[in-house]
Each structure stands twice: as structure tokens, then as C-alpha cells.
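Sequence, please.
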């Protein structure tokens, strides 16, 4: 059986991403603020396990993915009360697939490293359709060995996966991508 993976943030993008992992055979420990969403996932499949808070997710999964709206939410989920950091340590890997400030990605990586955990920033491009079709472009910042560990998960959610540098680099490349898209539309 495949490894247990945590997934926090079951919004427009997160829902199909978590489903791809479950469909690939992973047990997925889930958390989101909407209790009805949690119930719909656990009713849908035994592959989904509900957790009351981020700490509970990290207690059950050595790899935890977050897909959240912005920097403050990522910081709160990782570093706040009942946050991931309370249960992560040696062997744990946090993969943030949200689009956030590079500085936040670096701060999260440093804080997790202080407790022995690892971190990747891996923002995505491709929108809801890319998430539904497992065709996202994923720009990854962090250590090469962590990218290698995460690659089987990335391959279930995306088609173009590029390791672009150290912590924060994924967010920088995503910002550049957004500028290019904006210029194209102008």
C-alpha cells in the first residue's frame, strides 16, 4: 500500500488534487475549514481520513501538502496553534502548493528545518481545469532530495514539474509566470 499523505485545503484546486492522490492508492488525511467538505470526502471514499486540525494531519502523515489561499493562511497552518510544526520532525516533509510570498516560503522552510523537518514550495499553474485533469505545471523550490521524494506525488497532479532552485524559488518563478500571463492578456 502507498504511503499516507496529508492534504490541507480542499478548495477549487485542492479538491481534485487530493482526489488524484486517493485514486493513485494513497491514504489521504484531510483537513479544511469547511466541515461539509470533509464529510463529503470521507463519505466518498475510505481513502480519505478526517483530521480536526493541521497538527493531527502531521501526526498521521510524514508528507503533508497544503493548498491554501495566501501567505497568512500557510503561516497559520504551519506555525500557528495546532499547526503542522507541532507534529513534524525528522522524516517529515511539508509541500506547499499554494501561491504565496517567497519570503513566507523561506520562513516556513527555516522554521521546519529547526525541528528537523523539510519543506518544498511548489506553486502550480493551470487553473481548475489543470487540477481536474492532473495537468498542472508545478514549479518547485527546495532541496533536490526532497523534490525526488515528492516526485511520485507531483506526477499524480501535474504534467510539467520543474525544480527551479532553493526554498522560495518556486514562488519567484510562479510570480514571473503570472507577469508573463498578464503581459499576454494586455
Amino acid at each position: 500500500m502507498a504511503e499516507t499523505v496529508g492534504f490541507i485545503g480542499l478548495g477549487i484546486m485542492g479538491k481534485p488534487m487530493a482526489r488524484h492522490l486517493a485514486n493513485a492508492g494513497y491514504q489521504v488525511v484531510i483537513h479544511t475549514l469547511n466541515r461539509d467538505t470533509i464529510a463529503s470526502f470521507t463519505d466518498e471514499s475510505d481513502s480519505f481520513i478526517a483530521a480536526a486540525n493541521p497538527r493531527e494531519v502531521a501526526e498521521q502523515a510524514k508528507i503533508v501538502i497544503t493548498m491554501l489561499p495566501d501567505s497568512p493562511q500557510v503561516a497559520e497552518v504551519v506555525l500557528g496553534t495546532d499547526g503542522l510544526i507541532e507534529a513534524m520532525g525528522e522524516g517529515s516533509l511539508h509541500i506547499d502548493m499554494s501561491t504565496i510570498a517567497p519570503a513566507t516560503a523561506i520562513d516556513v522552510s527555516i522554521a521546519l528545518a529547526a525541528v528537523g523537518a523539510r519543506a518544498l514550495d511548489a506553486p502550480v499553474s493551470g487553473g481548475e481545469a489543470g487540477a481536474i485533469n492532473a495537468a498542472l505545471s508545478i514549479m518547485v523550490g527546495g532541496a533536490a532530495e526532497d523534490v525526488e521524494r515528492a516526485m511520485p506525488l507531483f506526477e499524480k497532479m501535474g504534467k510539467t514539474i520543474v525544480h527551479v532552485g532553493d526554498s522560495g524559488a518556486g514562488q519567484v518563478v510562479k510570480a514571473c509566470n503570472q507577469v508573463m500571463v498578464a503581459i499576454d492578456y494586455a
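Residues 59 and 87 are 6 Å apart (CA to CA).
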